[in-house]
Amino acid sequence: MMNNAPGSPRPGPAPTPGRSPDPHTTAVHAENLTVTRGTRTVLRDLGFTVPRGQITGLLGPSGCGKSTLMRALVGTQAKVTGTLDVLGHPAGHPTLRTRIGYVTQAPSVYDDLTVRQNLDYFAAILNPGRAAADRRTEDVTRAIADVDLTTHADALAGNLSGGQRNRVSLAVALLGAPELLVLDEPTVGLDPVLRRDLWNLFHDIATDRGATLLVSSHVMDEAERCHRLLLMRDGELLADDTPDALRTRTGAATVEEAFLRLVDEAKAAARTKETTR
Ligand SMILES: Nc1ncnc2c1ncn2[C@@H]1O[C@H](COP(=O)(O)OP(=O)(O)OP(=O)(O)O)[C@@H](O)[C@H]1O
């Protein structure tokens, strides 16, 4: 749990025992989560939980605060206040480093190394020493196959397409078999076949490995592929529900339509509040 003073440079542990849901079933728990960037409050008073072993989609228009929320979760965002627990620890806790895989929007790969060399490098950081050499080779080969880059394993990362480079970053995140994968818009720039294959991989990772995935997107049709959704707009949470429940509750045929109805409801509520002041 975390209750940071505004302006603190990093989320720091300040446990409040007994208030969080069971960390065996809950991967992320947030209460009154607020983030300031510069002089702007970009996340306002968020409260939600992310269940373990499922895919939760973080959806909302560009600039609504998805990346900021992900940065707060992995402990790289300053000026975070409120409660944010991740895998039973305050966000940013050192023991979380090897338990979370985080893929940013900008692929973090070395252009002058091949795909395999990139993976070998990160595998050596995760599992150093000669004794782990065989395990590293296995892990690297599996991660490259997971993201469907086996035929490009010996290509220089600098010669790959944008989508392929994104997949190298994803393979790096998969190396340590993380319990929580935080993926910031992983399907941007991918063709429909690769998008489908990646979503199938996300489901395999959740089902076969029991991992939790938090995947951001501003493409609403990807919402239908998630077990649960966090719908955001302007730094606020509009909904925390399953796609089915959202459609039923709003009487909408699609999640996109449900989102638009929730936006209209929020605007109407804000107008009512304004006129009754
Ligand atoms: N360094 C910064 N200083 C001040 N404001 C910032 C900074 N970085 C981002 N912001 C603002 O914070 C808000 C949330 O940005 P964020 O990148 O989290 O949105 P997003 O939903 O991930 O957008 P996208 O889908 O385009 O990546 C935006 O309004 C953005 O302008």
UniProtKB/TrEMBL annotation:
Residues 8-20 have a biased composition (Pro residues). It comes from the Bacteria. Residues 1-26 are annotated as: Disordered. One of its GO terms (molecular function) is ATP hydrolysis activity. Residues 28-259 form the ABC transporter domain. SMART domains: AAA (SM00382). Gene3D superfamilies: P-loop containing nucleotide triphosphate hydrolases. InterPro entries: AAA+_ATPase, ABC_transporter-like_ATP-bd, ABC_transporter-like_CS, P-loop_NTPase. It holds the Pfam family ABC_tran. Keywords: ATP-binding, Nucleotide-binding. The keyword ATP-binding applies. PANTHER family: ABC TRANSPORTER G FAMILY MEMBER 20 ISOFORM X1, ATP-BINDING CASSETTE, SUB-FAMILY H, MEMBER 1. This is ABC-2 type transport system ATP-binding protein.
